[in-house]
Specification:
The structure is a homoheptamer. The first copy, chain A, is built from seven helices and nine strands. Chain A is α+β, with helices and mostly antiparallel strands. Chains B and C meet through helix 2, helix 3, helix 4, strand 5 and strand 6 of B and helix 4, strand 4, helix 6 and strand 9 of C.
Chain lengths: 286, 286, 286, 286, 286, 286, 286
């Protein structure tokens, strides 16, 4: 930086240097592209082979494969970056070990990165999520698409792809780890007999349970959940196979509504008791 | 990193080395699998033996067993990782003691891990939770499935499995540490006599208390909780055996509603007093 | 860690060593159990003795006893842990004084622990809470069950046991430090005379004050608190003995409602003035 | 810790030592009790003397007295603790100056303590609060009972005693620093004449102002605050003596309601215009 | 602390020393009182002199005066404290420079103090507020009473005095820096002609603008702000002199309501279209 | 501070020193005032010259001018402060380089300052805002009045001047960077034909687009946005010139409402279907 | 700073120096402008060339181009700043390496900058966003306009340009990464047959699917989503091409509403059951 005096610069030599550097950069870039595509194919093949032989679930296999590619791409990029820095005559080790303001700044920058990698490592080690799981973390919900060293990708049900740095995943809810509960609340009139309504609802539930293979347990009418302002709310719960809970709930809602209707039990609208007062009495308020 | 010049690499030797390393890796991986399954069986047997002899509650026994397996698996993975690093010629101690940017970064990463382990250690030491307890921590509720060194697993009532890093468990509410309260609020009409209603409700409560073994104390009508906008709200509370509170509440709601109905006491809908005004007077507003 | 080469391990010696260690562990564990139960009994007896002689409130006595047991158990566990570490040939002092990554990590872990102990110490020193007090801290409310060096246990009114690390107790509201206020808001109609209503309510209050011993001051009708949308709200406040505020409020609500009814003063439902408009005029809106 | 080997301990000497230590502890404890009660009496007497001679407000005097006792008790406890540590052969200075993990941990613990003392010092120096003031800080409101070096005690109006560490008092609202405002919003009908209503309300206000000595300024009708959905809201404000604002507001509400009634000005209920549509036209919606 | 052995203390010498110290303390305290009152008077006089000669706004003059007194009082207290410490033989410099746990703790305590002074310094330098300004910062609003080195005092409109540490003043809204906007939203019926209503409202606005000197610009009807559920909302805005915005808004509301009434334009109540259905058809719902 | 013994002070010499210092202060203060006003004029003239010659937008020119004055005033104040410190014999460099408690404290204080300047620097460098732009940052909205090194001033639409430290400006929304969208939602009756309504609305939009020069694109009826509880909501959007969006929205609302009215398409009030039930049946509820 | 004594300054030499410096500054400024415009053109051309040859998506190409310009402009500004500092005789390296208060402060300032660059680097490396993508991050939504090293610019749909420092982008939702879901909820009457309604809705869906090319899957009626208080809610979902989801939803809403109408299936208004009570019975409430 001491010799930034513009007139002293040897422009020709500089242009030749720039040309050489560009050639080197191009060569390295193509090498990088070839190694990357070759590496990805090898990883893909290896996992196909392993997938067939050993007893690894398809979700786990996909997880490991996407992770392997992710690590491979980071290693490549790291080598790529170091090589380029060397072309410009900068030693990476010198930067990493460099003290002073720059070293400190890089250290702070690296902090987030390390946090991501450590958290990601334990998520994988404890098998908290696999590719294809339906998970919720923070305010993001969806199907896991990729678990990387630094970032986890979750596909929301509306099609959005959420990129979540692993360090942001503190607590994690996995909805694909066993049977799920279907829950339907249905309100009947205060005038109707509760026992009769329960009988009707339970019979319908039993019929559905016979037909629907996705139901593991129940559905059962468990009783009066709330004495609402206009209705007596009965709760029905069932245990279903994973991801089948919503379909079962929809089936239950339709069948139970039709069963109550068929048996003359009312699902009441909001009620209100009105008391008429003469406008004359109202003038007394003023 | 100084010799990354691509043309200098001896490709044959590299392939042979790679082959040897792969062989070693495979051997270590199988050893790891065998030791893991054997270890888990030994832990399981030991706890069965201890469970029979000593006076340890089943929940505590499960907790300790799941913890023992968890620690065992981490120790194995640590040995596994160190062995693999040695194959690649990297000394783990050198990394852990390594100063500079990497050491600092690892230190920051380890911070979260240590926080998890220390918190987990005190949760276990103070017996705050056991496997099978119904707990709430932060926004997560459910039955504890596993207490690990780093992560606690809670199964929500809808079937979701929550993975919570121990450091996220600051305050913890355990709903399985003694009898629980059942609470029912029931609104009667402003026209009805309060004393009469209390008598009817209390009689019903007493009948239920005789029949239901899960009720430890009460249920008792404790009085007028609120003078609502349309009803006089009476509160009934009872003490029940753990996890039986919801069933008792449901039973109470059904029985009390039927008792009031049988005695002609009204559970009122929302009320409103209407005052009719002529459209003529409304034109005066404009 | 340098000699992890699997083939070099002397398996027999290792097994004998393991056996000896297990024996030692068992011996120490039983010693630990005996000392613990003996110590707890001694603490219990001592406090019984002190409780009789000196003028310490029962709540304070329970607090100190539970604390003494808590400290005793931590000291025991610390000695227990150090002894076990010595069996494995690890010096605790070396760990505590150990610099590098591990020392730093332990330091961070200890930070939370020290914070807990210091906060707990001042809570006890300033007598902010005693066992049996009804307190609120953060979002947790209930009766204090145990005050430990590290954790305070609060039993919620629904039966839940809350474990709160002392460092989480920043501000603390103690509801068991003197008389409490009972507060009842009651709405009368805009048509009724306010003075008449106040007279009726105050007379009822005075009658209750004569009968109920838990009332320390009042209850008094202090005036018109709000001009509501449908009612004129009168406020009644009283001072009661500690924890009796809810019972007094319930008694007041019942008595005041019945007194108003007996004197023909209306507790009004929500009012609304309706203005009928012809559908013909409505077509003009579109 | 090096000689924790159980068999080497000389049990007799240990018991004698324990006995001596217990004796010393008892002696120190009684000395502590005597000095404490004597000191508190001296502080109390001194402040009575000062209070008579110098022009210090009673609130300030109580503040300084409670503070003096608080500091005195902390100094005593500190001396007490140091003496006890010496009995066990531990030098306090060594602990305070001790480096390593323990020193660091104590440093962190002390941080909160220093923060409390510094904040408390400036609250007292700037005379932000005195004992007896009605203050709000964070989510806590009430009368100040004690201002300590570490903790401030506020008595809520419902009787709860809030213990607030001084460091939690960031911003502070003192409601006892001058006259307060009484504010009443009253809605009149859209049909009524606004000028007439203002005249009626202002006359009532003037009458009250003559009678009530607690009113310093006003009350005045300042105009139309809102054009509500059913009423025209007029605002009345007054300046009252400290802590009299609520009583004045209640008096105003009652008097103004009665004045409007006497002059035939309506306080309207919520209004709604209804347009009847035939069920026939409704079938067109589906 | 080494010689705390109680029996070794020479009680007589100690009493004499204590007497001398008390005498010195009294002397310093009176000197402190005299210097303080003298200093405050000199500051007051100086500012009166400056205020007459130079062109400084009264608000700025008051700000500087209150600040000067505040700084003067802190300087005095500092000298006072250092003198007292010297009487007890403690050198302040030693404390401030003292390393170890105490130095560190004091450093942390000073941090908040420095933060207060630096923020306060820039608030004054950038003339963000003057005594008498109406400001909002965080959740506190009111008139600035005093700007100190450490704390700013804001008097809320209800009479409360808010003490806000300067460091808590991050963003600051000053409502006394130029003309303010008066804004009135008024709803007319869907049946009324919008152009006609705008003409009526604008005429009324123009009349007010002629009379009211506090209005700088407007008021103007700017158009249809919302198509509400029951009314068409028109917005009127004006620019008024500082602190006159509320009075102008009240005047506008009253005048505009009366103008609409006089011209037969309706301010509508909430509307609702009702469709009657027979109870017979309702039984079909159940 | 060592010679604070009051009797040793030479009062006369002290007074003379004080006089000399006051004279110096006055001289420096007047020099400061002259340089400041002269500097500001030079800056103003320079920017006028530049503004004429080069192609810089007026907003950018104002921004740079206000910034130049701001930097100039800070440099002056810095020189002023250093000079004054020298009069009192204090070297600024010594303070800045001073280690120990004071140096540390100043360092912490400076931290916020540096944060402000760095953020401000990048806001200016990236041309995120110019004087006159309408921006939103955090909870503050308005027109930018001044961008300083430390503080940005935003004038809210109600006339309030917000002072925002630059470090508080994390994310920033600039509403003056291109055309804006006008958006009107209008609800029609379920009985009306949607296609007909769209035709009517689109025709009105096209007429407005012809007349209003501020509309850049549209307005277009884009379709059924919501099936509301009482109406079918159609959305109209347009692209307008900057800051013209509100005027266009108001114009659209008025025109569209009148067009629908003219074509007999209803903007419906909230609807409700009522089912009459006899009071007799209601007694069954109780 | 030592020679700030005003009288010693050689004013003439100072003026000549100032003139020279201004000349240098002007020269450097023009050089800077020329290099900047030239560099930007070269970057633009290069990307046009690359865009034609290689298979890079247009979004990616724009991203890289805007980034290249951004980096280029920062490099230029850095060189520019260093050159100017040199003119004033200040060495940049000395500042960057400078210890003490200034070095520390710069270090803190740089921290945020490094955080921005590191986060930005990984966003680009992982291809989380491209120019033209529709993304949501924090509370900001819109189309990405520029991705810089330090700041990302997002254009909101209302025309606002959001400047977001990269470090503020923690989690990121990209709505342009594949097909999106269209979702319509439609409520039918409790009186209508659910199966019939589903048939009608599905037929309409199928017709739309045939015509609209943007629909990739569905739309399908998936069943009863809710049993509402006045209606049975049926849910329809479809998968559409990216960014076409809103248009499809609008089309579906219109077509489904018309289909239900044509088949006589009611979309019900809110329902309420009214029970008439005589004013006589109401007097009993009071």
């Amino acid at each position: 930086m001491e010799n930034l005096n513009l007139s002293q610069i040897n422009w020709e030599a500089l242009l030749i240097d720039a040309g050489l550097i560009l050639l080197k950069l191009a060569a390295i870039y193509f090498a990088f592209l070839i190694v990357k595509s070759a590496g990805n194919k090898i990883i893909h093949k290896s996992f196909e082979g392993i997938g067939r032989k050993e007893r690894i679930s398809p979700g786990r296999s996909k997880t490991l494969q996407s992770l392997a590619k992710n690590i491979f791409s980071y290693v490549l990029i790291f080598i790529f970056a170091v090589t380029i820095l060397q072309i410009f005559g900068i030693k990476a080790t010198a930067i990493l070990a460099g003290a002073g303001v720059i070293g400190l700044a890089v250290g702070f920058g690296a902090q987030g990165l390390v946090s991501d990698v450590v958290t990601g490592f334990f998520i994988l080690l404890e098998r908290q999520i696999d590719v294809g799981d339906y998970v919720t973390t923070g305010s993001y919900s969806g199907i896991v698409e990729q678990i990387g060293l630094k970032t986890t990708q979750i596909r929301g049900f509306d099609g959005t792809l959420h990129y979540i740095p692993n360090r942001e995943i503190t607590s994690l809810s996995n909805h694909s780890r066993g049977n799920m509960r279907a829950l339907v609340d249905i309100g009947i009139s205060y005038d109707d007999n509760i026992d009769e309504a329960i009988t009707v609802l339970q019979e319908t539930c039993d019929k559905i349970a016979e037909v629907n293979q996705a139901i593991v347990e129940g559905p059962n009418v468990i009783g009066v959940q709330t004495l609402g302002s206009s209705d007596v709310v009965l709760r029905i719960i069932a245990k279903t196979e994973n991801m089948e809970q919503w379909a079962v709930e929809r089936q239950l809602r339709k069948a139970l509504k039709e069963a109550l209707e068929a048996n003359g039990i009312e699902i009441p609208f909001p009620h209100q008791v009105l008391i008429q007062k003469q406008a004359g009495s109202e003038s007394a308020a003023g």
